[in-house]
Amino acid sequence: MQEQKYKTINLATASEKIKFNEIENSSELRPLFHITPPHGLLNDPNGFCFFNNQFHLFYQWFPFGTYHGMKHWMHLTSSDLLNWQEHGSKITPTENYESHGAYSGGALVENNNAYLFYTGNIKNESGRDANQCLALLDETNTVTKYSANPIVKSVPQGYTGHVRDPKIVKHNDNYYMLLGAQREADLSGVIIIYQSKDILNWEFKGELNLQCDDAFLTGYMFECPDLLRVDGHDVLIFSPQGTEADGSRFHNRFNVIYCLGTINFEQLTFKIEHWDELDRGFDFYAPQTMANTPNEQTLIAWAGTDEDLPSRQFGWVNCLTLPRTLSVINHRLYQQPKILESDSFNKISFKNNNNNFPINLEQLSFLLEIENTDKNINISLSTKNKHLTFSILDREIYLDRSQYNHHPDDWQYGNIRHHKIDYDIENIKIVCDQSILEIYLNHGRDVFTCLFFPENEEHKLNISREEDTEMDIKLNYLTI
After folding, report:
1. Which one of 2.40.50.140, 2.115.10.20, 3.30.1330.30, 3.40.190.10 gives the CATH number of domain 2-339?
2. pTM
3. Which helix (H) or strand (E) is 337 found in, with range?
4. Catalytic positions
5. All structural domains of the chain with their residue ranges
């Protein structure tokens, strides 16, 4: 297992390639619109950018098994953020400075160049180390590692080898590299910052002071920092590991935070004016926003964190969320799925004033939109033996997947997510795509992401509520 765990794709045997092809051609449980690995394990999205009139996306990929092994960067391109073309591994960890994997990182697009920053993971007799590395993406979709890598060798004094996930932003005439890190003294999480004038030479500046005292700052590691501007607001996103449950928040093994506020690069401070979880479901981690976006700010995330999923019997695990456009409304971060802009739907519309409305589903890739909802509603996706429910009861929201017995590593965190809201629900959008649900309330004010792995049976939607007022229901089957 150890030798296989650190094997790179260029060493695949002929028999392994045959097996890979069989896995890739299997459609069992695979979503139509959500990105899945051709074989093996997928995790964090990386290098998300708009370059050369195309959208580019990479993701962490271990080709040889459905467990965490040697991480490669798989490359995809798209013209619409919905239909993706796969180009294979473009960063394969074959160099000494990345001896145990090419870990996550982001992109910077400038002067007709696309720079890809990533962490070279090192494991040796003395423990773990990390290098920050650079590769260049050109107009032919070729990726070339920088000849003088690493651009940042090892980690600064006072931090463990857990320093990773570079995010590059430009402010005035300087470039800043944000990294997730762990302090050596107390093994607590932090974001650290390097500064550069030329993208190639970097100087350590210090820790980013997050100006608040809330519970999420007690995590043991901060992963995947991201910083961007949305509708005039600075938005800091990161994934704190080791946060304690706080009311209805932080009930996953790993969680994601967004903060609205003001960044000060000179003083290395971020004044937090509002913060919350970015997603309230079960399966959302390591989000990344697009560099050099041509229109709206756009985010995509890993829908996973667990390896022990039913799809592993078919040779692959995990997927990415749909790309989501971001906006700030009334000091809250909103997310909307890009799939709503697609016209490749088989559209069916209903106007219904019954308090119990069943729909026999033709397939499990669909968009359900409900307008004019009242305070109480229950939506159930069911077969003969199992059901998954989303319900709203007097401004309390419940997502229940307790009848699906996968995710055993996450059972300790429960199979029901609960969230109390202070607003009326006006609309609900649910994207179901074979084995994943994304639920958007009030144009994305709150979002729930949920993997589920149904049996190959007939499925039924049932929408029920207490009152008989008219409700607009649209069901759009998704096609490729």
Report:
1. 2.115.10.20
2. 0.95
3. strand 332-337
4. 44
5. 2-339, 343-478
